[in-house]
Design a protein that fits this description.
This protein has about 500 residues and is mostly helical. The protein folds into three domains: about 10-205, Growth Hormone, Chain: A (Up-down Bundle), CATH 1.20.1250.20; about 230-285; about 305-435 and about 470-504, no CATH class. The protein is about 75% helix and about 0% strand. It is built from 18 helices and no strands. The protein has helices at about 10-40, 50, 55-70, 85-100, 105-135, 140-165, 180-205, 210-215, 225-230, 240-255, 265-285, 290-300, 305-335, 345-380, 380-400, 410-430, 440-470, 475-490. The longest helix has about 35 residues, at about 345-380. It is globular, with a radius of gyration of 22 Å. The chain starts with 10 loop residues before the first helix and ends in a 12-residue tail after the last helix.
Length: about 500
C-alpha cells in the first residue's frame, strides 16, 4: 500500500539528526591523528604500528553487521531503535578516551584502542541507518551531506586540539618520554565533547515507531526480505570450503615467505568466515532463517548488485585512508621535520603539524560536501562525481613525494579533503534510496564491512611489505595510497546509478 509521507525535515531537523556524528568524529580524529604518536611514545617501532592498529578494523568488522542486525529489530519505546546503540557506544568511547592518555605501557594503549574503536563503531553504524529512517527519500542526499559536514567539522576540532593545547602553554614533550600533556588533555576534552554531542541528538530527536513506519508505507519494501536468507538452504558448501582453503593458504604463506606474524590474523579471519558460512548454510537447511548468523551471512551473500559494485570501490578507497592514518605522522616527522626521535622537539612539532594537516583535509571535506559535490553531481551525476573526487585524493597523496615544506603540504590536503567528502557522501547517497527500509541497519552494517576489511588488510600486510622493500622509507606508503585510490576510481566506472545520465 501507499502510505502517508514522512514529514519533511527543516535545517534544524537535519542538524539534530546528525549532530551526534560531530562528537563521534572528534573521537575518530583524536584516534587517527594521535595513536601512532601514542604508540611510538610508549616504545613502538614504525614497523610495528600496523599490528598495533589492527584492533580498529577487526572490531569494526565484527561489530557493524551485528549492531546493524540488532538495531533493525530493536524498539525501546521513547528511546527508539537506533538511539540506544549510539548512546551506549558514546558512553564507552568517552570512558576509553579518558583512560587512553593514562596508559603507561604499550599493551594498555593497544587494549584501550580496541575498546575505543569497538565503542565508536557501535555509535557510528546506527547513525548511517538513522538518516535513512528519519528522512524522506528526496532528502537522503541532503541528510548525508549534512552528516558529512559534521564529520569534517568534528575531525577538524579533534585534529587541532593538541596544537591549541600547545599554544595555551601546555607542554608538548613528556619528561622522560611517554605521552605529552597536550595529547592527554586533548583526549579528555574529546571524550566530553563526544558524549555531549551524541546526547544532544538523543534528546532532540524522536524516532518513528514501527506503526509509523508501516503508515509511511515502508512495510511494503519488506516483501521478500527473507529471500537472501532462505536462499542459503539451496547453496552448497563449495564457497565455504574455498574461504577456508584461502585462510589456510595465507597461514602457511606466513611461515613460507617469512611474513609478519600479524598476517596470521588475516588467514584466521578468512577461514573463520568459511566455517561460519558453512554453519549458516546448515542452519538454513534446518529451517532456521531468523537467527543472527543466518541473517548476516544470507544478506551478505545476497547483497543488491549496485551494493556489490560499490563495495569494491569502498575496499580500495578505505585502504588508502588507513594507510594515511597510520603513516602520515612518521612520514611528516621524518621527511619534513627531519626527526625520528619521539622525544625530540622536532618530532613532536611535526606530530602536531600532522594534526593541522588532518584538520585541513577535514575542513575541505566539510565545505566540499555542502558546496562542491552537489554542484558536480548535478553536472556529472553521482557516479562520475565520485570518480573525480577519488582522483583528486590520488593526486594529493602523490604530492607527498614532491613537497618538503610543511605549509605547502596543506595544498596536498585539498585533494585528499575532496576525496574524503566524496567517500563519505556519494556511496551512501547512491545506496540510501535503493535499500529496503526494513533492513537498512544490516545493509549499512554490511556495506561498512568493506570499510574495515581493507583496513585490516593494510594493518596485517603493510608491515610485511615495508619491512621487505622499504624498511626505513615510510614515504612509499603514500605511493600505495595514491595507487589504491586510482583503482577505486576505475572500479567506480562500473557503477551505474539508476535513472541517472550524464546530465540531470
Amino acid at each position: 500500500m501507499q502510505g502517508r509521507e514522512k514529514p519533511r525535515q527543516g535545517w534544524a531537523g537535519l542538524f539534530n539528526i546528525s549532530f551526534g556524528f560531530f562528537g563521534i568524529q572528534i573521537g575518530f580524529a583524536l584516534q587517527n591523528a594521535n595513536m601512532s604518536r601514542v604508540f611510538q611514545s610508549l616504545g613502538s617501532a614504525i614497523d610495528d604500528l600496523p599490528a598495533l592498529w589492527v584492533a580498529a578494523p577487526l572490531t569494526g568488522l565484527l561489530v557493524q553487521p551485528i549492531i546493524g542486525h540488532m538495531s533493525d529489530r530493536t524498539w525501546l519505546g521513547r528511546l527508539g531503535r537506533r538511539r540506544p546503540y549510539f548512546l551506549a557506544g558514546a558512553v564507552m568511547a568517552a570512558l576509553s578516551l579518558f583512560l587512553m592518555p593514562l596508559s603507561e605501557v604499550l599493551i594498555m594503549a593497544a587494549v584501550l584502542l580496541w575498546v575505543l574503536d569497538a565503542s565508536l563503531n557501535v555509535s557510528m553504524e546506527p547513525f548511517r541507518a538513522f538518516v535513512g529512517d528519519m528522512l524522506r527519500k528526496d532528502q537522503h542526499t541532503a541528510g548525508y551531506a549534512v552528516q558529512t559536514a559534521f564529520i569534517g567539522a568534528g575531525a577538524v576540532v579533534g585534529s587541532i586540539v593538541p596544537w591549541v593545547m600547545t599554544q595555551m602553554g601546555v607542554t608538548n614533550v613528556a619528561p622522560g618520554g611517554g605521552i605529552p600533556d597536550t595529547v592527554r588533555y586533548s583526549f579528555w576534552i574529546g571524550g566530553a565533547a563526544l558524549f555531549a554531542a551524541v546526547l544532544w541528538t538523543v534528546l532532540t530527536t524522536r524516532e518513528f515507531s514501527p506503526d509509523d513506519m508501516r503508515a509511511f508505507g515502508d512495510a511494503d519494501s519488506a516483501e521478500g526480505l527473507d529471500q537472501p536468507v532462505r536462499a542459503l538452504a539451496s547453496k552448497t558448501y563449495a564457497a565455504s570450503a574455498l574461504w577456508i582453503a584461502a585462510g589456510v593458504a595465507v597461514i602457511f604463506a606466513v611461515a613460507g615467505f617469512d611474513l609478519e606474524k600479524e598476517v596470521y590474523l588475516l588467514g584466521a579471519l578468512l577461514a573463520g568466515y568459511g566455517l561460519l558460512s558453512a554453519v549458516a548454510i546448515s542452519m538454513a537447511r534446518q529451517g532456521n532463517v531468523t537467527g543472527m548468523l543466518t541473517s548476516i551471512v544470507g544478506d551478505f551473500s545476497g547483497m543488491p548488485e549496485i551494493m556489490k559494485k560499490l563495495a569494491l570501490v569502498q575496499f580500495f578507497s578505505w585502504s588508502a585512508l588507513f594507510i594515511m592514518w597510520i603513516n602520515t605522522t612518521p612520514v611528516v616527522t621524518q621527511y619534513v621535520f627531519g626527526s625520528t626521535d619521539t622525544a625530540s622537539a622536532a618530532y613532536n612539532e611535526g606530530a602536531n603539524w600532522v594534526g593541522w594537516l588532518f584538520a585541513a583535509y577535514n575542513a575541505v571535506a566539510a565545505i566540499a560536501a555542502l558546496a562542491l559535490l552537489p554542484l558536480l553531481a548535478r553536472k556529472l551525476g553521482k557516479a562520475k562525481t565520485h570518480v573525480v573526487g577519488l582522483l583528486c585524493g590520488a593526486a594529493g597523496f602523490a604530492s607527498f613525494f614532491l613537497i618538503r615544506d610543511p605549509e605547502l603540504l596543506l595544498v596536498a590536503e585539498i585533494g585528499i579533503g575532496i576525496a574524503w567528502a566524496s567517500i563519505l557522501a556519494m556511496p551512501y547517497a547512491i545506496l540510501a534510496s535503493s535499500l529496503p527500509q526494513a533492513k537498512l541497519g544490516i545493509y549499512m552494517g554490511l556495506f561498512n564491512v568493506f570499510i574495515v576489511v581493507p583496513q585490516l588488510l593494510v594493518a596485517t600486510v603493510m608491515g610485511s611489505i615495508m619491512k621487505a622493500f622499504f624498511p626505513t622509507e615510510p614515504i612509499w606508503t603514500m605511493a600505495f595510497a595514491a595507487g589504491t585510490l586510482v583503482l577505486a576510481a576505475l572500479a567506480m566506472l562500473r557503477v551505474q546509478v539508476p535513472n541517472e545520465g550524464v546530465a540531470p
